[in-house]
Design goal:
231 residues; alpha/beta; Rossmann fold; six-stranded parallel beta sheet; 10 helices; binds 2'-O-acetyl adenosine-5-diphosphoribose
Amino acid sequence: MKKKKIVVFSGAGMSAESGIKTFRDAGGLWEEFKIEEVATYDAWTKNQKLVLDFYNQRRKQVMEAAPNEAHKLVAELQKKFDVQVITQNIDDLHERAGSKKVLHLHGEIMKSRSSISNHLIYDLKEWEIKQGDLSEDGSQLRPHIVWFGEAVPEMDTATALTEQADIFITIGTSLNVYPAANLIHVVDSSTPKFLIDPGDFNLDYIKNLTVIKAKAVEGMDILIKKLNEYI
Ligand code: OAD
């Protein structure tokens, strides 16, 4: 029998229990750093070193982190469902947990790219991109990250995949950043939707949405049992 399609849409809360900071919670990254100083193209033109340092630190942390039980439970869903992960996260913890289909909306910290040719993308083995590290076109390498104000190249693909979902699960995202946050509104109103997050949301107007107010690990544990009735 054909497996049902699950789309898992994840955000920073998914990796919180792996020790990676979220952005907008108390103590989150955007309290410590200003978006306009580290995560825009303008910042890159003004202070390349600061931007490189910010992402080098993110990469170092990701390399030191390990997938948590929630990442592993998402990967385990593949046994019974056709699972597509769409993540806003730049870490590779879904992949390391065993998820086979992962689309990164906001880029990937373990990759660098040319600062003038978007298609020249490279895998990184080390934690640092240094000033003077060049792409084959001679330009300074930048992190392969979608900065604020930049287009989200994978958005159309993400929208098409979400439209095909039989079940939609969102985990650990404040749903604050667009266009990514729009995906939950793309899902058909008759499609079962689940939201796992310890935060407060006012989404009563979304049909067929079950909110599991819990952290990712506990929430996935609860959800995986509920999903048995949809196999
Ligand atoms: P946010 O920091 O905005 O939201 C994190 C969400 O995770 C909140 O809803 C928290 O309640 C929830 N959370 C915290 N701990 C959790 C846990 N242990 N388990 C589950 N959920 C938990 O992060 P995102 O929504 O991912 O973009 O942010 C979206 C985008 O904004 C990011 O991709 C990044 C950021 O700026 C770019 O850098 C372009």
